[in-house]
TrEMBL record:
The keyword Membrane applies. It is found in: Membrane. It comes from Penicillium antarcticum. This is CDP-diacylglycerol--inositol 3-phosphatidyltransferase. It is a multi-pass membrane protein. Residues 1-43 are annotated as: Disordered. Belongs to the CDP-alcohol phosphatidyltransferase class-I family. Residues 19-32 have a biased composition (Low complexity). It comes from the Eukaryota. Pfam families: CDP-OH_P_transf (PF01066). Keywords: Lipid metabolism, Membrane, Phospholipid metabolism, Transferase, Transmembrane, Transmembrane helix. Residues 1-10 have a biased composition (Basic residues).
């Protein structure tokens, strides 16, 4: 045997003795098999959660159903519509409580909650636009501001703050107003509740106030007796739409045309300042989100220049 061969064998022997187990550092497949089996069995033992069936998300689905039901009754039955719409809005506070109580806060739930809020308010404002076409541009502007503000805020939060960052976690250094708005549950609830109350009050006034809806004082011409236009409470006689004037639908329509305007005026007057503050918050939120995203763009451009 040559000296070179003997030296190679001696080196291999020293390497095998230096290893912790006294064997070669290369592991064989058979030695890795038990750990793989253990990891697979541990994965099977972990419970699989269904995010879509979490309690706050089920409440969110209920809000969607109530919203569609209120939209169905919106053109002709203000009492029923207002009741369903109000319950849907109140459940907005309950789903947040359920998420904290059951420790089931999820990104899907946050998005579901926000989308439901935006779509519900937008549908009510669309009806108000049809009830008062002269002021439609104001209601359309409110829809655009609400949608743009919340979309930009959530997009900026996810892109700049991270995918696990909640849109309600606002640092006070960025905006003191948004920090107070989102970090105080009382302030957030009052602003959202009275903002919706203002639009509900306007909706009820479209059925009860001759000052805002002069058509309430005008009799319906016989030529228009076959149609009931959404947003125009001066509907034809119940007997012209229903076979029996004593049916549930005819009685509900008769009650709808006899709404008192006192309470709708009170609700609208009390909630008007809060609604105005909520729109101001939407403007601040949109501007703050735009600036935050612009800062990220500048950082990205600087990083590209250094490359």
């Amino acid at each position: 045997m040559s000296a070179r061969t003997r030296r190679q064998k001696a080196a291999l022997k020293e390497e095998s003795e230096d290893s912790p187990s006294g064997n070669s550092s290369v592991s064989t497949p058979s030695k890795r098999t038990p750990s793989k089996k253990r990891s697979k069995s541990a994965a099977r033992e972990e419970p699989r959660e269904n995010i879509f069936l979490f309690a706050p998300n089920i409440i969110g689905y209920s809000r969607v159903v109530l919203t569609f039901a209120s939209l169905y009754y919106m053109p002709l039955h203000p009492r029923t519509c207002s009741f369903l719409y109000t319950v849907s809005c109140l459940l907005d506070a309950l789903d947040g409580y359920a998420a904290r109580y059951f420790n089931q806060s999820t990104t899907f739930g946050a998005v579901l909650d926000m989308v439901t809020d935006r779509c519900t308010t937008a549908c009510l404002l669309v009806f108000l636009s049809s009830a008062w076409p002269r002021w439609a541009i104001i209601f359309q502007a409110l829809i655009c501001l609400d949608m743009a503000s919340h979309y930009m805020h959530m997009y900026a939060t996810l892109s700049m703050g991270g995918s696990d960052q909640s849109h309600k976690k606002v640092d006070s250094s960025r905006s003191w107003i948004l920090y107070q708005y989102y970090n105080s549950k009382t302030v957030l609830f009052i602003c959202c509740a009275l903002n919706e109350a203002f639009f509900i009050g306007l909706y009820l006034l479209s059925f009860s106030s001759p000052i805002l809806s002069p058509s309430l004082l005008q009799p319906v011409p016989e030529a228009q007796a076959s149609s009931a236009q959404p947003g125009n409470p001066a509907h034809p006689e119940p007997a012209s739409l229903f076979a029996s004037p004593w049916s549930a639908g005819a009685l509900e329509m008769a009650r709808a045309n006899k709404l008192e305007s006192t309470w709708p005026w009170i609700i609208t007057g009390i909630s008007l300042p809060v609604m105005a503050f909520k729109q101001f918050v939407n403007v601040v939120q949109m501007v703050n989100a735009a600036r935050w995203m612009a800062e990220g763009d500048l950082q990205a451009r600087r990083a590209n220049r250094k490359k």
